[in-house]
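Entry 12.
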Amino acid sequence: MSAAHALVGQVAIALAIVAVVWSVGLLVTRRSPGTLYLVNLLWVFLAVAVAALMGAGTLVSGSPLHDPLHLVYGLLALGILPGTMLFASGRDARGRTIVGAVGAIVLLILLARLFQTGG
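Predicted 3D structure (tokens):
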């Protein structure tokens, strides 16, 4: 795993932690997610996408994959936020917050597994 790929992955984890804490805070305070919350989720997704592109580049360049599950977890992590947003659409504010919190927690778990399988 390249150092830049690992660094972007760490940034994604930090942003995902912010998303989880923010989501849980919204649930506890019964507040609706605002624009900044959605912007944070966008940054999390962008960090995951950049890490995925860098990882794909590393794989294509001939670096061996230490654990095939790393690829599986990477694809799942890349798809979790768009899937969460799709699942949350059409729900009331409380429902979107719950779905967002679950998606952020699942993403954080997947990112942790990515680091465990990465090498």
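Annotation: The CA atoms of residues 32 and 76 lie 27 Å apart. Residues 3-117 form one domain.
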